[in-house]
Amino acid sequence: MSPTTQDAGLALLKWYADTGADEAIGNEAAALYAKEADIMPLPAKGAPIKQVSLKPQKPKPPSDEEVAEKLQTDAASLAASCATLDELRAAMEGFDAKAHFPAARNLVFADGNPQADVMLIGEAPGEEEDRQGIPFVGRSGQLLDRMLDAIGHDRESVYISNILPWRPMGNRTPTMQEGVIFLPFLMRHIELAGPRLTVALGGSSAKLLLGTNQGIMRLRGHWSEIEVAGRKVPILPTLHPAYLLRNPLAKREAWADFLNLKQRLCENLND
Fold first, then answer.
1. CA 84, CA 32: separation in Å to the nearest integer?
2. SS3 category, 211
3. What CA–CA distance (Å, rounded) separates 105 from 236?
4. What residues make up the domain containing 85?
5. How far is CA 95 from the centre of its chain?
């Protein structure tokens, strides 16, 4: 090694020492604390660099149970804030659950006399009810009018509503989950109307209001009580008029139930 080369090497080593590089490891820089598998090789010179797209992870959608629980909580809050039947109707009109009934066109709130002694509660609007926005105006409603007339009553002497204010797709029977969602509205409806007696028209209505899984054939004709805002309200389950249209022989049982209702109404008038 020539003196010039030796002097240059010594000068380079002195420069390394002055900069703090006091240990020779290799010809290439290395990450001393990284595992070999974690060290990604550099792409070859001139090779295209692959672009990595980092997509944001979508949040997990809520379950059906979580959606139903939120809707019921919202319904309870809205119902409790209503001081009149008009306010209750407006609250139900704007309730988020309406989006779950794409076939519905109009809110079906109630019909008849809200000051009446008896309130009849059906299940859900059908096509004709949805078109007019009035409960029980189709074939089953016409039969209900005749049943009321047979015991000396009409729509001016009763008050009529449903579990659901919106028509389900295909005129199907309301599910128990749907009934539970709208139950706060229904209970507030009964509270604001203040009937002395209630009639559950059909199994869905009777099961929801009585909190039971028993069938309508076992429930019908027997008076029970529901508690509405601390007040005991008698309730009589009976067959839905739509069921009677499909099963005419069952009109005998329904007639007996309506005679039972007539007797109870007469007793209330004499109290």
1. 76
2. coil
3. 31
4. 64-269
5. 10
Decide if 57 is inside a domain. no
Instruction: Confirm whether 180 is domain-assigned.
Output: yes
How many domains, the chain? 1
Q: What does the longest C-alpha to C-alpha distance in the chain come to?
A: 132
Q: For residue 29, give Cα distances in angstroms to 24, 25, 33, 43.
A: 10, 8, 12, 16
Distance CA 161, CA 148 (A): 15
Closest CA to 21 of 12, 32, 31: 12
In a domain, 229, yes or no: yes
Please answer whether residues 191 and 82 qualify as being in contact, where contact means their C-beta atoms are separated by less than 8 angstroms: no
Tell me the mean pLDDT per 10 residues along the chain, length 271.
64 66 60 52 63 69 81 95 98 89 93 98 96 96 98 97 94 92 97 98 97 96 97 98 97 98 87 63
38 DSSP 8-state letter? G
**Running DSSP on this structure, what letter comes out for residue 97?**
G
226 burial via Cβ count (<10 Å: 0-12, 13-18, 19+)? middle
**How far apart are alpha carbons 227 and 254 in whole angstroms?**
25
| E-only strand ranges, the chain | 111-112, 118-122, 159-162, 197-201, 224-228, 231-238
According to the model, what pLDDT value does residue 34 have? 53
Q: Residue 111: which of 207, 184, 208, 189 has the closest Cα?
A: 189
Q: CATH number, domain at 166?
A: 3.40.470.10
pTM of the entire structure?
Answer: 0.77
pLDDT of res. 43: 59
The answer to whether residue 158 is domain-embedded is yes
